[in-house]
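FAQ
Q: What does a multi-component entry look like?
A: The components come first, one per line:
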Amino acid sequence: MTDSDTSLRDRLVDAGVELLAAEGLQALTLREIARRAGVSHGAPRRYFPTHLELLSAIARRGFTDLAERTRQALDRETGGARAQVAALAGAYLEFALERPGMYELMFRHDLLESGRLGLRETSLPLFSLLTGLVGAADPGADAPRVAGALWANLHGLAQLWRWRSLQLATGEADLATLLETVLVAHLGPGGGR
Amino acid sequence: MTDSDTSLRDRLVDAGVELLAAEGLQALTLREIARRAGVSHGAPRRYFPTHLELLSAIARRGFTDLAERTRQALDRETGGARAQVAALAGAYLEFALERPGMYELMFRHDLLESGRLGLRETSLPLFSLLTGLVGAADPGADAPRVAGALWANLHGLAQLWRWRSLQLATGEADLATLLETVLVAHLGPGGGR
DNA sequence: CAGAACACGTAGACACTGTCTACGGGCGCC
DNA sequence: GGCGCCCGTAGACAGTGTCTACGTGTTCTG
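Then the predicted structure of the entire assembly, as tokens:
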């Protein structure tokens, strides 16, 4: 029941999540994670044969957190399908802005190749959820195609905004109106609110 | 007039561009670039005080290449503003797919912070060009906002497509129709083309 | 209950990285 | 001709990820 009876595997991932939030992605060293978990630098190898697999496990934590967050946002939203798409999109952007390090890691595919299979299982459900909502919001549209385009737009919006590229390119735009612009573009001016 | 009278500075950037295309971003080591340029590992320091500055110089080369490419695409396109936006977007995506390593580097802002100022000068003109075209294609729209949203969409499209995320999420979509979907979304079904 | 097998973490070596510093050689300028 | 001074070399340093040999404590087993 003490602090140290949770398996080292979990403690490593915990330490990694903390370190990622505190110091950023480039600080997420194998040896530093081990240090924070209070073990030697060779210990993680028992559970994660390579550094990338440990990073993948940390990213997986991020994907489940994101799924949980969007689930809550959808539960709170009582409006129609269009409003639920907006809620999902808003939750996505909030996540990207509040946990930039984690968001960065989650989409650094060059760091996650080994855990690719597991990651698909965590990120694909979110996309099919979006597809379903899009189909419900606009029954006439080709839902997978529109959902794909919208997803790409959300992702790009999150990235460019985090880099302050959109801020200095568009001048004074704020993120909320940009998001609204994106939603209107892909779903039409629809009566949703 | 021999091969070696071009300054070492340029030779380093050349070697970096080649190495990036041949082996990918993670192979773009300071020491390996120096090896390919035929100098010792300490030599680059004369021209690039830090590794990031060398990477920034390589990325700058990419930005000028991209600008050149879009310029040519626009010259070839004789249609209206709407068609020119499509040409610009197509050139952008082609660049991202044909030179994935360079594209990756160009948007790894964590690797380019030092040369940020110079990079702004090379990427901002492209955006204002897009803004102008959008304004011409749809005079009624808030051009900077629409251009920003469209830019984000292009960027996200390029990223997700490179990672094969869109392919396996949407099933069978091809990139050209996805791009058309995006253009229709932001500019309307417009009579362009 | 004694002994063997094993899970688990330690410690050191290795090749590699980016940065820093001292050094030398070849050029032009007064 | 001799004095500087670019410009590149070479080695050291701390840090990284991976690999391997080594204990130590626990847990099954006969």
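Q: Is there any commentary attached?
A: Sometimes. For this entry: Residues 7 and 66 of chain B are 24 Å apart (CA to CA).
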